[in-house]
Amino acid sequence: MSNVFSTSYPISRSPGVCGASGRALIAGERVVATLVSRGEELSRVDYSVEAWGNGARPASLFAHWSTVFQPGADAKKGRLSDEEASELFEQLDGPGTPAQEAFRFVLALFLVRRRLYVYEGSKDGMLRVRARTRADEIAAPILEVREVSMKDESLAGALEQLKELIPDPAGQA
């Protein structure tokens, strides 16, 4: 079986400037990264925390998460950490477009595979997961994610988008 995380999909890299002010971002600076829908492509636009806090938002916002700006040639620096993937999953909760729902479904499967979330079953077309907690902690609440049919074209698109954002889990411990 081929690895679903082995090919790329066109998601642009951060241009290194704040999407609102045009100010150059500084390495190590906390930013709000966004994905913006532009036809079949998702473009990344970063915002300074100040600009985001003042209400700056891109048109056609698909999703957003908090991260640290890290410029450079290393492609893995532009990808989501486990914490950022979890934040993105939680941010996509609630009603969304079919593409956002498909993306969230695939992201939930990824988080279960990475053992960050626990599979709690499926009921009435909803995948049930919860964040993994230690044995001495109170269990996290169960979250429901609309299951997407494997025939759904948006699932294929979501898989491709996720491949670009998150490093291959097969190559990690």
Give a written overview of the molecule.
This protein is of the alpha+beta class. The chain has one domain. The protein contains 4 helices and 6 strands, in the order ββαβααβββα. The protein has helices at residues 49-53, 82-91, 98-113, 153-165, and strands at 30-38, 41-48, 61-68, 117-123, 126-131, 143-146. The strands form 2 sheets. A 3-stranded antiparallel beta sheet has the order 2-1-3. It has a 3-stranded antiparallel beta sheet with strand order 4-5-6, covered by helices on one side. It is globular. The relative contact order is 0.17.
Distance between the termini: 20 Å
Gyration radius, rounded: 16 Å
Low-confidence stretches: 1-10, 73-77
Give the SSE order as H and E letters: EEHEHHEEEH
- Average pLDDT number: 77
Write the layout of secondary structure elements.
Elements lengths: L29 E9 L2 E8 H5 L7 E8 L13 H10 L6 H16 L3 E7 L2 E6 L11 E4 L6 H13 L8
Antiparallel strand pairs: 1-2, 1-3, 4-5, 5-6
Helix pairs in contact: 2-3, 3-4
List keywords for this structure.
173 residues; three-stranded antiparallel beta sheet; alpha+beta; disordered N terminus; 4 helices
What is this structure, in a nutshell?
The protein is an alpha+beta fold. Helices cover 25% and strands 24% of the residues.
